[in-house]
Amino acid sequence: MGKGDKRTKRGKIFSASNGNCRPDMQKRRAMTKAYAEANKPTDSGTKKA
C-alpha cells in the first residue's frame, strides 16, 4: 500500500494514471452530472393554497 501500489488512489496519483479508484476529470464530470439529474429536487412538497 502506498505510492508503489497502483491499485490505490495515492499510487495512481504517483504514477499519473487513472482508473476505477481515480477516474479522469471527464468521467468525473459525467458521473456528477448524471447524479445531479437523478437527484433533482421536485416541487411535489411545496403546495400553495
Largest sheet: none
The SSE string, one letter per element, is HH
Question: pLDDT under 50 segments (min length 5)?
Answer: none
Residues in β-strands, percent: under 5%
Give the overall pLDDT as a whole number. 82
* Coarse morphology: rod-shaped
Q: Please provide the count of β strands.
A: 0
| Distance N to C terminus | 60 Å
By DSSP (H or I, 4+ residues per run), the number of helices equals 2
Helix content: 40-55%
Question: Which secondary-structure class do the elements indicate?
Answer: mainly alpha
The rounded Rg comes to 18 Å
Outline the secondary-structure elements.
Layout: H1 9-15, H2 25-38
Describe the structure.
The protein is built from 2 helices and no strands. It is rod-shaped and about 65 Å long. The termini are far apart. The model has no long low-confidence stretch (mean pLDDT 82).
Q: Would you kindly provide a brief summary of this structure?
A:
This protein has helices spanning 9-15, 25-38. With 49 residues, it is an all-alpha fold. The chain has a domain at 1-33.
